[in-house]
């Protein structure tokens, strides 16, 4: 009789554990709030900046210098707007860099993407140092192009 009750007890424990896993697992479901605001501002400008490669690099330099200041001043909306401008300038500049060709075009595009990624992370993580690094790296990239 003892072996029957031991088997019965094991089955009962197994059923209880299985039930707890099912009910406990469904209680931890993730709810996604689609109406929540995103962390990065979408570019407000629908038209991309125009100009030569040199002019766009100049616009990018001045815009990146504003980005760090906005983050330091804890002006999140200005930082997001400035980042949107940086992204718009990059969207105009990238095809011009590729069209110009040259031996180092692939490396230039990769370096520029790293600069843009630093600018984005500066806003996402509230890190003005990343914006400063992006500006320093951009200065070096521009000097290497001359």
Describe this protein with a few key phrases.
single chain, 146 residues, mainly alpha, Four Helix Bundle (Hemerythrin (Met), subunit A), 74% helix
Spell out the CATH superfamily of the domain at 53-145. Answer: Flagellar protein FliS
Which spans of ≥5 residues are poorly predicted at pLDDT below 50? none
Instruction: Provide mean pLDDT, rounded.
Output: 82
Strand fraction equals under 5%
CATH architecture of the domain at 53-145: Up-down Bundle
Count all strands and give the number.
Answer: 0
Shape: elongated
**Structural class by secondary-structure content:** mainly alpha
Rg result: 27 Å
Give the C-level CATH assignment of the domain at 53-145.
Mainly Alpha
CATH topology of the domain at 53-145, by name, is Four Helix Bundle (Hemerythrin (Met), subunit A)
Count the DSSP helices: 5
The N- and C-terminal alpha carbons lie at a distance of 92 Å
Structural description of this entry:
With 146 residues, the chain is mainly α. It has five helices and no strands. The protein has a domain at 53-145: Flagellar protein FliS (Four Helix Bundle (Hemerythrin (Met), subunit A)), CATH 1.20.120. The N and C termini lie far apart (92 Å). It is 74% helix and 0% strand.
Write the layout of secondary structure elements.
Layout (H helix, E strand, L loop, with lengths): L1 H25 L26 H20 L3 H25 L4 H20 L3 H18 L1
Quickly describe the structure.
The chain has 5 helices and no strands. It has 146 residues and is mostly helical. The protein has a domain at 53-145: Four Helix Bundle (Hemerythrin (Met), subunit A).
């Amino acid at each position: 009789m003892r072996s029957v009750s031991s088997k019965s007890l094991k089955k009962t424990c197994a059923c209880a554990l299985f039930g707890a896993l099912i009910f406990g697992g469904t209680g931890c479901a993730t709810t996604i709030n689609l109406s929540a605001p995103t962390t990065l501002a979408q570019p407000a400008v629908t038209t991309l900046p125009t100009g030569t490669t040199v002019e766009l690099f100049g616009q990018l330099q001045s815009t990146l210098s504003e980005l760090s200041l906005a983050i330091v001043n804890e002006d999140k909306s200005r930082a997001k707007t400035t980042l949107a401008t940086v992204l718009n300038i990059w969207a105009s500049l990238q095809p011009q860099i590729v069209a110009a060709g040259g031996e180092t075009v692939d490396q230039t595009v990769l370096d520029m993407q790293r600069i843009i990624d630093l600018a984005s992370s500066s806003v996402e993580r509230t890190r003005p140092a990343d914006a400063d690094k992006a500006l320093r790296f951009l200065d070096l990239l521009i000097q290497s192009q001359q």
